[in-house]
Amino acid sequence: MSYIRQLLVAVLFTSIVSEFNSSKQQYTNTWAVYISGGAGEARRIARKHGFINLGRVFDDGCYYYFKHKRVSKRSVNPHQMRHRRLEKEPKVKWLEQQVVKSRQKRAFSVPSDPLYHKQWYLNNAIPNDLNVLSAWKRGYTGEGIVVSILDDGIEKNHPDLAKNYDPKASFDINDDDPDPQPRYNFNDENRHGTRCAGEVAAVANNLCGVGVAYNAKIGGVRMLDGEITDVVEARSLSLNPQHIHIYSASWGPEDNGQTVEGPAVLASQAFLRGITKGRGGLGSIFVWASGNGGFQYDDCNCDGYTNSIYTLSVGSTTQLGNVPWYSEACSSTLTTTYSSGTRLEKQIVTTDLRLRCTEKHTGTSASAPLAAGIIALALEANPTLTWRDMQHLVVRASKPLHLKAGDWTKNGVGRKVSHHYGYGLLDAGLLVDLATKWLTVNPQRECSIDISKSPQVISDKLVIKKYVDPCSQTKKYIRSLEHVVVRLSLSYTRRGDLRIALTSPSGTYSKLVDVRPYDTSSHGYRDWTFMSVHCWDEDPKGIWMLEIENKGSSTNTGVLSYFKLLLYGTDENMMTRRTKDTVISHCINWNEDGVCEECQGNFVIFGRLCLVTCPPHYYNVSRILNKTMSGVRRNFTVDTCAPCHPSCYSCDGYSVNNCLTCPPFSNYDEKQQSCSLPVYPRHFGRSERNDQMDGLHKIVVVAILIGAPVALICGVTSLSWLILRLSRRQTVMVTTSVAGASETTQLHVQHDTSDEGTGSSETESTYFITRFDQRLDH
Ligand SMILES: [Ca+2]
Ligand SMILES: [Ca+2]
Ligand SMILES: [Ca+2]
Ligand SMILES: [Ca+2]
């Protein structure tokens, strides 16, 4: 007991002392002195009074920094004597003994929400959680970031969402009105969007649990509760792209293990426009769930939404680090967050429909919003990151840890990667840390290589190897890979029996699609794109190998008609880049609007931020400011970021002819230093649905081409034949009008056979006769 008492007293004493100390000023042994008469005068005064002259505070101007060795480094009292002596010097116009300023990071306290203790994936209850606490402790809570959930609506009046609800990030596409309130029915089928929204931005310190980015703005697009068309998807994906930073989607083609489908024309265009123009040209961030078809052996590379390079695909792991039963594996998944698993494992805590809370949110669709929330924290830490920067950072901030999978391998740059988890569990603390240290990557390059153009038979196993020179000596040269895309067309008797894999020059094996037992389709893959992120940062130069293997019956046959490799990446060697230098620094002075006016060190002003260099779409300009500081007017230069011409991606001046690089899908004119208007490619990510449409189209076109002349010839022939027959019949009828019907028929038969003279069959003749007789009867 006495020990505890002693401890309490000690704690109390320490806190009293620190309280006392913090209330008192701490004087240093340094002075700031304004001296007129130049540097020589400053040196003389310093020497005379025993000070060390540490030089000018600013490169220009009359502020000097003095230090006195015989004054104590820290003192609660100012040194009056030395101060007064200096003050009496006629050239000293102003001086101040420097005091230690208490600058603490805003205090952070753990959320007090009643269900917070059940949020095991973020409250530090398990050893390897999402490490959200360390991002919160650094002061990042999603402030200023806008996330929209594309789903079945959002209960905007939910007490745990209302404060963060953002109508500008919301819309009801199903009913075409601005209010995305879910439609209520007896089994609450439209609770999904509200649950996902709470994971991102449920308010802190009230009821239920807390969102990962609990100070972010959250909106919802109601688009899954009705007929879904290409237009519906495209409108959702392109809602208010200058306001919304992150779109979170947990939907896609049916997870039945048989479907091969991707975004159609308009949804594809929405992605392309989003990454080019969204977020002021930095690119919208599309966070995507990898799919719930694990139970049906579905493969997320057969889903063109999640396997798009423009979506940041998120897989799931369970509380114990197992692959969940619903999880789909594929090489395009980038990262992983927690979700539900077996009955013994805990699920996700979030807001629920009808103003309730739930502890039972499940599936891959619970993982994507957790990632969206973590990405919101990183965007708050550095809002100048591009859509590709974010993928680079997520690769670096994901860790294999305890996640169990049979296929973890080291890729060519030494990172562990798995088809179940991508690069592993996303670490929020690491992501925000890297975000403040990351220099934006150079513009994306695409190097396209036709590997096989002539048809090749696929029997048991088809292996194609080719040495690839990644567009060397051109402006498309790629040194470090990002996404690797394989586009191919093949026919096959049973598509689901094929396993297709790609091996990079560094030996990284990406399973592009695994066997899908329920996929009995004989459509094959037509212009389908498979994607892998497993070669991230590898050098693409060398031998690539594609393997197409039949894992089913030996009677299967097919033909590969073409195979193309699309490499995406940059000219920079990403593995040699240093990420230690902080790219964001503190602002020293702000104006009334909160815009920074002066940065610490050699940083450039960008709105409220201080950056080491201007972000894409901006260039560095020096400005001279005239300001009154401590009663003295002075000029000083500041570096700020000014916007480029909207057509440029980077520039060295405002004009249309100051472009240095161009945005995606735009061409650079070297002479003019200008960029063309972007032309967004069409027919990207073709789907089976489109293939079927194409097939139908072809049939119609062929039918018209062949059918029309044939029909015309037939029409003319039958018409002339009819006319001929009618005229003859009139004569026959006249001659045999008294005879019975059978007699007439007889006559006609004779006429028919003799007229045709080509041996037309008995039945045909009879048919004509019958018709004719019937017509006569009427
Ligand atoms: Ca509505
Ligand atoms: Ca709450
Ligand atoms: Ca799927
Ligand atoms: Ca993706």
From TrEMBL:
Alphabetical UniProt keywords: Cleavage on pair of basic residues, Glycoprotein, Hydrolase, Membrane, Protease, Serine protease, Signal, Transmembrane, Transmembrane helix, Zymogen
Location relative to the cell: Endomembrane system
Any one Gene Ontology cellular component term annotated for this protein: trans-Golgi network
GO-annotated biological processes: peptide hormone processing
Signal peptide per UniProt: 1-19
Similarity field: Belongs to the peptidase S8 family. Furin subfamily.
Region of interest (Disordered), ranges: 165-188
Residues annotated as catalytic: D151 (charge relay system), H192 (charge relay system), S365 (charge relay system)
The protein's name: P/Homo B domain-containing protein
Record Pfam families: P_proprotein, Peptidase_S8, S8_pro-domain
InterPro entries: Furin_repeat, Galactose-bd-like_sf, Growth_fac_rcpt_cys_sf, Kexin/furin, P_dom, Peptidase_S8/S53_dom, Peptidase_S8/S53_dom_sf, Peptidase_S8_Asp-AS
Domain P/Homo B: start-end pairs: 441-573
